[in-house]
Amino acid sequence: MRDVLHFQEAGRLNPVAPDDRMPEAAYSTALDFLVFTCVDLVFTYQNQLLLAKRNTKPRSSWWIVGGRMAAGEEPKATAIRKAWQEANLKNLEATRFQCVGVYSTCFAVRHQPPQHHGSHSVNITYQIELTLEEKEQVKLRSDEYDMWRWVEPNQLESVLSLDDELDRALLTVVQDLQW
Asked: What's the pLDDT score for residue 13?
């Protein structure tokens, strides 16, 4: 797939940093009106991919690593930041991230009140093939992930539920990977 192109007009100033957070009440209201963008990362090593069991909404189940993109941030800059923040992988070169696809996900619940309003994200998804040393450095954040494991693609159906729409979405992402 072609990479996600990013165009930025000269003089564009972003008043917040990627790690800044909008006040929760304002963010809750924004989620009712806006679609937010995430960058998801599929870490692969040989014929395996990293599957992570998230413990936070909107996806409190098996998924891949990732998080929100900040205003003004290039997609690959988000990928590099998320690899560091979520998986303890630093100094990854932007050229190693290969765009797998862009997916739209609607969640029935969300972390922010009112939780039952759910949320909608567009996910720019990248694959990155790790070295053995990098694979061994992976340590996911315990405040967002209960556990993680390396699985072969043919093992996914034994972990995921084909009755769950977002589990089927994850299977679609995996089918789009480059092996």
From this structure: 87
Sort 44 into a burial class: Cβ within 10 Å, 0-12 / 13-18 / 19+.
buried
Distance of alpha carbon 99 from its chain centroid, rounded? 12
Who contacts 129 (Cβ-Cβ below 8 Å, separation ≥6)? 44, 45, 96
- d(CA 37, CA 122) in angstroms, rounded, equals 5
Look at residue 101 in the predicted model and tell me its pLDDT: 97
Percent helix, strand, coil in the chain, to 5, is: 30, 30, 40
Burial of 39 (C-beta count, 10 Å sphere; 0-12/13-18/19+): buried
pLDDT tens for 137-154 read: 999 999 999 999 999 999
What DSSP assignment string belongs to 36-71? EEEEEEEEEETTEEEEEEE-STT--SEE-EEEEPPT
d(CA 159, CA 108): 21
Residue 27 confidence (pLDDT): 95
